[in-house]
Design brief:
Blueprint: E1 3-5, E2 8-10, E3 17-21, E4 28-33, H1 37-56, H2 59-75, H3 77-88, H4 92-109, H5 112-115, E5 119-124, E6 127-135, E7 138-142, H6 150-161, E8 165-169, H7 176-187, E9 195-197, H8 202-210, E10 216-220, H9 223-235, E11 239-243, E12 248-252, H10 258-270, E13 280-286, H11 290-300, H12 315-330, E14 334-337, E15 356-359, H13 366-369, E16 376-382, H14 385-394, E17 400-404, H15 408-417, E18 422-425, E19 445-446, H16 456-460, E20 461-469
Parallel strand pairs: 7-8, 7-10, 8-9, 10-11, 12-13, 12-17, 13-16, 15-16, 17-18
Antiparallel strand pairs: 1-2, 3-4, 5-6, 6-20, 11-19, 14-15
Length: 480
């Protein structure tokens, strides 16, 4: 692996090497040297040098790069998806959907010239006030392993279209996709230095937070690390938005449509092998819903590792997920569908966990409280909606919650009472589509605003306010 600095792939002079392996079969894909602070300095210097010309280019011209980039994503969709699948382990269908989401995110960025036109008003005779969005300067984005292309594209098109120059650090587990994205951006005509990749581990994360020339930092990853990044970056007086983990609760009511609910719950908990912060992780069964749980188990039985269920990111993750399942069983929970000890024929070195359904889980069990990040759903049983909401509200995270019901009044009640930033009604993965922004609450997000959709404009730019007066002959009043 190489860094991408000032429009060129450059060697990393480091003796610290990480091996990149495919979760699907354990094959070695690449060696990644870990960058040093000197490598980051080179990237920042390139971005600083590119910033004056790029930021002064009219946004209607900047956005032309992303019209071309969108075309290139569409042209190379299959290749990009195969790369995501190879390095991340998700199925090819899921990887294709990820690239399609990248296309949608880029399409939104191409609309930004119409969304950042600013405002102007004559506030007094001959006196005008005007606002305009101006770029911050050099910004940084630190991205996770679970969406090697999509999460980078949460930030790249918007931040760059708004006139910033970017340093991005990919996850050390999946650096290949971002290198391909860099090549496409260059092909699309992005000027050298506007976009730079610095590979590495926690050392580079700390260096990014500390670097005096980086104005803003976005982060997506675990809550533990999100807190540290937010504290360190804001401690250096940077703006920071750090998205963390989740423990999303699905409330299933007795009047829920059984087939639709079962299919949706299983898709939510097993999609991308459960490695997404919007995955269903805890299902709260309200009242008598055994008939739906039976259907959930039947649907889970249709999810086959190596076919329509991808691998988890590595062996360590597989072992961690299986420990959660074993601990729940030892504490008295009932394993209805067991995904432990899964081996896929022909891919024996892959990291697979089968779909797992755990019933009679108590709220104090680790599987009910902690983010597992695997294809596992824990079922907690309650008698009333308020008991279910009490469980959901006690959850320290706040990314998503969902309810399955045909009762509009109850759905509205749960929408109002659930303590999460994104709510689904009969939808298990309630990710907003552009122009609406992605973002949770509580321990799932640190900072103000969002890094996608319309809300991202406020994060990736600053507002300049100008007041002008050109008629000294006009009388002066309190407004002028």
């Amino acid at each position: 692996m190489q860094n991408f600095i000032n429009g060129r792939f450059t060697d990393i002079d480091s003796t610290r090497l990480l091996t990149i392996t495919s979760p699907t079969d354990g094959r070695e894909l690449a060696l990644m040297p870990c960058s040093t602070a000197a490598d980051l300095d080179a990237a920042v210097n390139a971005a600083k040098a590119a910033f004056p010309a790029w930021s002064q280019t009219p946004i209607k011209e900047r956005v032309q790069v992303f019209f071309r980039y969108k075309y290139l994503l569409e042209r190379d969709l299959q290749e990009l998806a195969e790369l995501v699948s190879e390095e991340n382990g998700k199925t090819l269908g899921e990887a294709i959907a990820e690239i399609e989401k990248c296309i949608e995110l880029t399409e939104f960025a191409t609309s930004l010239p119409q969304l950042v036109t600013g405002e102007i008003l004559e506030v007094s005779k001959g006196v005008e006030c005007r606002t305009e969005h101006v770029p911050l300067g050099v910004v940084a984005s630190i991205v996770p392993f679970n969406f090697p292309s999509m999460v980078p594209n949460w930030t790249i098109p918007n931040a760059l279209t708004l006139g910033n120059c970017m340093i991005i650090k990919p996850s050390e587990k999946v650096p290949l996709s971002l290198a391909r994205i860099a090549a496409l951006l260059k092909e699309a005509g992005l000027p050298d230095g506007v976009f730079n990749i610095v590979n590495g581990d926690s050392e580079i994360v700390n260096a990014i937070c500390d670097h005096p020339s980086i104005e803003a930092v976005s982060f997506v990853g675990s809550t533990k690390v999100a807190k540290l990044v937010y504290q360190r970056a804001t401690g250096q007086l940077k703006r920071c938005l750090a998205l963390g983990g989740a423990k999303n609760h699905l409330l299933v009511l007795p009047d829920a449509k059984p087939d639709m609910t079962a299919q949706n719950v299983v898709a939510s908990m097993s999609g991308c092998a459960g490695q997404r912060c919007m995955a269903a992780s805890a299902m709260v069964a309200v009242g008598q819903v055994d008939h739906i749980i039976d259907k959930i188990c039947a649907e889970a039985g249709k999810v086959i590792p190596g076919k329509n269920l991808g691998a988890v990111i590595n062996r360590e993750s597989k072992e961690k997920i299986e420990r959660y399942i074993t601990e729940a069983e030892q504490q008295g929970a009932r394993i209805l569908i067991d995904g432990r000890n899964t081996v896929v024929e022909g891919k024996e070195q892959g990291s697979y966990v089968g779909p797992t359904v755990i019933d009679y889980v108590k709220p104090d069990m680790a599987v009910a409280r902690e983010e597992i990040f695997g294809p596992v759903i824990s079922i907690l049983r309650t008698n009333t909606v308020d008991e279910a909401l009490a469980i959901e509200n006690a959850n320290p995270y706040g990314n998503a919650a969902a309810v399955y019901t045909q009762n509009g009044s109850l759905a509205r009640y749960i929408i109002e009472k659930a303590n999460a930033g994104m709510i689904g009604v009969n939808i298990g993965v309630p990710v907003p589509r552009e122009p609406f922004s992605f973002g949770g609450w509580n321990e799932s997000k640190f900072g103000v605003g969002d890094i996608t959709g319309k809300s991202s404009i406020e994060f990736w730019s600053k507002l300049k306010k100008t007041t002008t007066k050109w008629n000294p002959e006009a009388g002066i009043n309190w407004m002028s």
